[in-house]
Task: structure prediction
Amino acid sequence: MRIMVLGGDGYLGWPTAMHLSGRGHTVAVVDNMARRAWDYEFGAESLTPLCSLQERIATWQTLTGRSIAAYIGDLTDYTFFEPAVRDFQPDAIVHYGEQRAAPYSMIDRRHAVFTQVNNIVGTLNVLYAIADHVPDCHLVKLGTMGEYGTPNIDIEEGFITITHNGRTDTLPYPKQPGSFYHLSKVHDSHNIMFCCRIWGIRATDLNQGVVYGVDTEETAIDERLATRFDYDGVFGTVLNRFIVQAVAGLPLTVYGQGGQTRGFLDIRDTLACVELAILNPPDKGEYRVFNQFTEQFNVLELAQAVKAAGEELGMPVMIHNLPNPRVERESHYYNAAHTKLLDLGLKPHYLNETLIDSMFEVVQQHRSRIKEELVMPGVDWRRTHNEVAVTGAPVAA
Amino acid sequence: MRIMVLGGDGYLGWPTAMHLSGRGHTVAVVDNMARRAWDYEFGAESLTPLCSLQERIATWQTLTGRSIAAYIGDLTDYTFFEPAVRDFQPDAIVHYGEQRAAPYSMIDRRHAVFTQVNNIVGTLNVLYAIADHVPDCHLVKLGTMGEYGTPNIDIEEGFITITHNGRTDTLPYPKQPGSFYHLSKVHDSHNIMFCCRIWGIRATDLNQGVVYGVDTEETAIDERLATRFDYDGVFGTVLNRFIVQAVAGLPLTVYGQGGQTRGFLDIRDTLACVELAILNPPDKGEYRVFNQFTEQFNVLELAQAVKAAGEELGMPVMIHNLPNPRVERESHYYNAAHTKLLDLGLKPHYLNETLIDSMFEVVQQHRSRIKEELVMPGVDWRRTHNEVAVTGAPVAA
Result:
């Protein structure tokens, strides 16, 4: 198949591009290098050293004999994106090409507006390009489990059957997202569902949990194929940050009580899920939603797992509870369905000591690159102005 | 109270500004004249002749002794809007300042992107300006009943209590909007609800039905105070179009079967509802939703009412069923709650022969201004390119 990976230079985009190329698909990546530029905004960088996209593609070609095409430009610029789609004629588009950090969207008004405009316009452009040039193309869109928030009832996969005053309908699951970023994904989901209805587009919305891990079958081939490992307060996700804190001898910073429960998955399962979605496309006009995670944990449980693994490796690890910079429930019911990808054949890599140990190994290998000043949260949800991008260093909440 | 009316030069904004000024409030309007500019895009204009905003304000001052301030600029430009809010210090902001036509948003990609960016960014700017400068200010936001779509269960006012797998929660009512415009209102609603939660903003989301009528207590004072009457295929609403068609001797064009049921209200009730919301504000941090309509009709029923009234006035009136340019159910269950505004004291003006006759009178008075070529629908939901703005004349569906 011909597959276009939007955001194909990013944390998940690049491993996905290699994975699909390795399986024999014809792959093109589209990227505007925004993620690399955001690092400069904060004086941050990936813990793992990164080659340029051009070097990555050349290395992949040399080592595997397979080529990956690259279109460098911005999805919000239709004069760039439309000809790229017309030229490449994808059978599937995997859409990671969005601003994907909740704290980034909460820095201030400019970052909130940027996040929503960037994500919404990019996705509208993708929908129009599909309708106009590749109407049978399958859109595989990365959403987030954060679209649902933390309702007091079971979370279903995209839709819920409601009986009310004696009548019944199956309706989009109510959304209660917790940041301007998460809101942008909710807006995308509504827009995509509508376009499937009016134009007959086929789409899979992958409401993904928090991804951990950095090694995939393909990144492991050569260090020049490595993907990002973010641990800073803006782009770093929780497990990465905890392991960096443990290795740096810093306390693990749990936001609030740590009872916040979320869905998680291994990066290798992200690649497997995207591939399963592509190989099992929806019908024309069908909008379907898969909840893409394999296990639920709360933040304190993750901190305790990292503490145990660190101490096993001989590091003393402390856990600190910080005042929560986010506005979220710290103790709540959480039970989310996630059977549709298992039904398609997903074989999960569950989080275990071996995986945590391998992440410790990566972090220890690059220990000298840790910038401790970047780890603390610099963005407070209750403020409309956070100085993180003004000083170049995060401000403690 | 100090009340700022965003979109205060528009169909509802101007009558609202006068109504609130007439009740003794200190009123400022904010407008960028976009609605007048869109007329030039299509070679259209209001059936009722309109004075400029400056002439309207001068006339109002002369006739009532009351002044209305005006800030002319674009809500999406924060360097304009922030100082306006800081300067005026509103106790309430009534937000009509959005692109409000579904067909306009469905013309093509540019109009879809414009509508969503314009509406979302404008509303984000309003939310930030309130949080930063007038944190106690009450946001009265115009939404639309179209956010809900046509579910097969009763529509509630913003939230629904769901019992699922033995647990219960009250959650945002699921949304199934039917155009990029209606989607923009859904996006706004999610953004506003979130800002109430994180910043303690108080907001009322008025999910309004289709408004009809052109005369209010204040517009009736002097013809220079008249508000718009749109009948074109892009901005005209259904009852207006039918009456213009009847007066012009054209068949009434019912889209499809005409079984599409919607909520409707008289323009005078819009003003009353907005005033009731302002006088009964929500608590700090509260996001509430009122369904703002007074009666449900389907499109065919309205056509039949106009036909009957026209024939009573001696005009032969035909009804034609057109292929539906929209993608919507033409026969469906529809039962939407609308008790919250009645509980606050709304006394509805129901649609009756007298009101329809008075609309006929307005149209007959301005009969020579009717441009017949503008009445037909020029925008087809199934197309990604509609030529309406290219040729200056609508293209038949």
